[in-house]
Amino acid sequence: MAKLRLTDTWLSAVTDAGDYSDTIESCLKVRVARTGAKTFSAVRKLGGKTVRVRIGAYPEIGLREARARAGEFREMRALASTPAARAEEVADAVSASAANFFHDYVADMQARGVTSYGRVKGTLIDGKYALLPFLVARHGGMPRAGDVTIQDLQAWMAESYARSPNYAPHLRSYIVTAWKWAVKNRYDYRGGARDYGITYNIAEQLPTTPRNKPGDRFLSNDELKALWHALDEDHPTHRVLKLMIAMGGLRVTEVTMSLAANWRDGWLHLPETKNGRSHQLPITRTAAPLVVRCLELAHPRSPYLLSNPRDPDEPLTMAAISRGAKRLNKQLKFPDWNPRDLRRTMKTHLIDAGIDERWLDIWHNHGQTASVARKHYIRAEYADLKRDVAEAIDGWMGPVLSGP
User: What is residue 180's predicted lDDT score, i.e. its pLDDT?
Assistant: First the structure.
């Protein structure tokens, strides 16, 4: 068996079949098959016997993690008495920690372009009330991913629910999806299996809350006018709300997740929207000066048109925008409303003003009739129609929002 200092450069290039031993971590071995597949193992003598346990395939398991798992195996002093217990104990010694699991999951989300990876990272890893530090405190150290129990998740969710009953369902969905990802990776037959010691989705046992019924709140003309004039363009959350109105009822995330580069040449270019398709809209005359103001105030190191003041690499959060709306609500003494109600408000008033409902569906990127042709073949951008809608939006907003 050849001995050398393993490196990622060497691992990615080696093709000669055989077993290789790491000089940095003595327990770590890598076997290169004739097919080119590379598998990490931890090997050492325990109880007078040479024990080998598989860690995982490279590059799904990185060199750094393989060394860490082999190091933990090296620290074992004795084996259990029965073969079954020994097998379980050895497997546990090299299984992934909860931190490995969470970091891998978030990295996979980011690699797939999932825009919510930042929120999930905060929920699982580094947020103020994140799950990982809660588990470390509860277990008295870093637990293995497979050792996390439904009771652990229940206790964390109970604390989260006590802080914010309305947000707890979002947290549940994040951890259910994370555990589902781990199970899928364990049993992936396509060659990309990663074993975190998680055999089934324990998070699914957490009870769900009844779905909220779709809201029916929309602001009257007078309320909309009062809100418009109360919005301060120097305030980032106010700029989001004002831009939603000025663009005829954009989705909150279509504003918050948009990059500064998406607003160019008089158009808003959204590479991906809620229905998975790209969407382009002409910038209305009402919105144009506001977009210029947003670009002037944009953080120079942030890609976003409206970045998070605490972390320019992240967009404004929905929680921050909702808090801004609540403060406005208190100031204006309106019946309760939330930022998503602005989309319903604009669509309702624009239809009442005589703008064709199908035109507005295209503007708002709502699903059209689910025919085979539309689902698979029609990719029209409707540029001229959208310009007409932009003109109609400006025509309606001018008289309604003008004056004090």
Answer: 94
Interior/surface letters 122-131, b for 16+ CB within 10 angstroms, e for the rest:
bbbbeeeebb
Tokens of 79: 């084996």
The confidence score (pLDDT) of residue 403 equals: 63
Task: Give the best-scoring range by mean pLDDT among 176-190, 281-295, 317-331.
Answer: 281-295
Q: Are 317 and 229 within 8 A, CB to CB?
A: no
How confident is residue 227, by pLDDT bands cut at 50, 70 and 90?
very high
CA distances from 130 to 124, 135, 218, 225, 390 (A): 5, 9, 35, 40, 43
State the virtual CA torsion across 150, 154, 156, 159 in degrees, nearest 10.
Answer: -170
- The whole-angstrom separation of Cα 306 and Cα 237 is 8
For residues 50 and 43, the answer to whether their CB atoms sit within 8 Å is: yes
**Residues facing residue 4 across a β-bridge:** 22
What is the spatial distance between Cα 141 and Cα 98, in angstroms, rounded to a whole number? 11
The helix or strand, by DSSP H or E, that contains position 268, with its residue range, turns out to be: strand 267-270
SS3 259: strand
Structure tokens at 165: 């009953």
Alpha helices in 77-235 (DSSP H): 83-93, 98-111, 117-121, 131-139, 150-163, 168-186, 221-230
Structure pTM? 0.53
Question: Residue 197 CA to chain centroid, in angstroms?
Answer: 23
d(CA 323, CA 171): 19
Give the C-alpha separation, 121 to 56, whole Å: 24
- HEC readout, 238-253: HHHHHHHHHCCCCCHH
Taking 50 as the threshold, does the pLDDT of residue 251 lie above it? yes
Both tokens assigned to 280? 């382009």
Cα separation, 296 vs 400, in Å, equals: 27
- In sequence order, what DSSP letters do the residues of 344-375 get, joined into one string? HHHHHHHHHTT--HHHHHHHTT------HHHH
> Cβ-count burial of 106 within 10 angstroms (0-12 exposed, 13-18 middle, 19+ buried)?
buried
Q: What is the pLDDT of residues 313-329, one digit of tens each?
A: 888 888 889 899 999 98
Torsion angles phi and psi, residue 310, rounded to 5: -85, -25
The SS3 call for residue 289 is helix
Instruction: Give 2-57 pLDDT, tens digit per residue.
Output: 889 999 899 989 989 999 999 999 889 999 988 888 988 888 876 677 777 778 78
